[in-house]
Amino acid sequence: MKQCGLQDDKERGWIDKGILLPLLVCLFFIFFGIACTTTNNYASVRNFHKESLKKEKYYEVEQGDTLYSIGFRSGSDYKQLAKWNKISSPYLLEIGQKIKLFKPKQRLRIHIRPYNKIKKVKVKNKILKKTVTISNNKKKVLKFYWQWPLEGKILKRFSQVANKGIDIAGKIGQKVKSAASGKVVYSGSGLTGYGNLLIIKHNYLYLSAYANNSRLLVKEGQAVKKGQVIAEVGRIGRQQASLHFEIRKNGKPVNPLRFLPKI
User: Fold this and answer.
1) Which CATH architecture best describes the domain 146-258?
2) Radius of gyration of the chain (CA)
3) pLDDT at 20
4) Which H/E stretch holds residue 68?
5) Topology (CATH) of 58-100
6) 3-state SS record for 101-137
7) pLDDT tens profile 83-115
């Protein structure tokens, strides 16, 4: 009788194992499928950590780079980099391509011209300068053009040395909105200290940047409208949940509070 009991226990053990293994496999695929479907709605984030390029003269293009992200890291305007390296729109780069990060020296050319021609050129140059000054002097209009990307307390104010934008307090998962209409020119996590970062080009003059996000909801090359939800608030390390927001004019950081409407 004891032998029969032992044999029955062994048979139950084999039966349990035979049911348990397929059950575990099924559960694995179910959870794997759920994980895949929950992430497909968001922009892919590239994880190539890169430091500042301000002290460098040349840069070799790596995977995930764009002319806008290189300009952001070097403190140069993407239009300057394009001109210095003779890269035309849409500014496509190749891995291994060397990018010059400084203005090349121009050779002086001396031409002897009649006096009356030189006078005409000077007059034309004066007219052009006035036109450029008028087109760029839009501070009053731009104050109404921008909107706050996030409503919250300002944790850190703008500083050319320490903080090249403003840090706005928020909650994890809070919606981040585009401060103005434009095109996403960078979406990733490649720039050290910025976490998940979005860079939006608004026109030939202005870019805006949104850092420390937990999720990026738009992709590179995507057109966005003013007020459109583009990301969700996150944090870096143990810091308070916040959005780091920058506005750059001709590649140089400017104080966002000069452009955003007063609250």
Assistant:
1) Distorted Sandwich (2.70)
2) 28
3) 60
4) helix 67-74
5) Membrane-bound Lytic Murein Transglycosylase D; Chain A (3.10.350)
6) CCCCCCCCCCCCCCHHHHHHHHHHHHHHHHHHHHHHC
7) 888 888 888 888 888 888 878 876 555 555 555
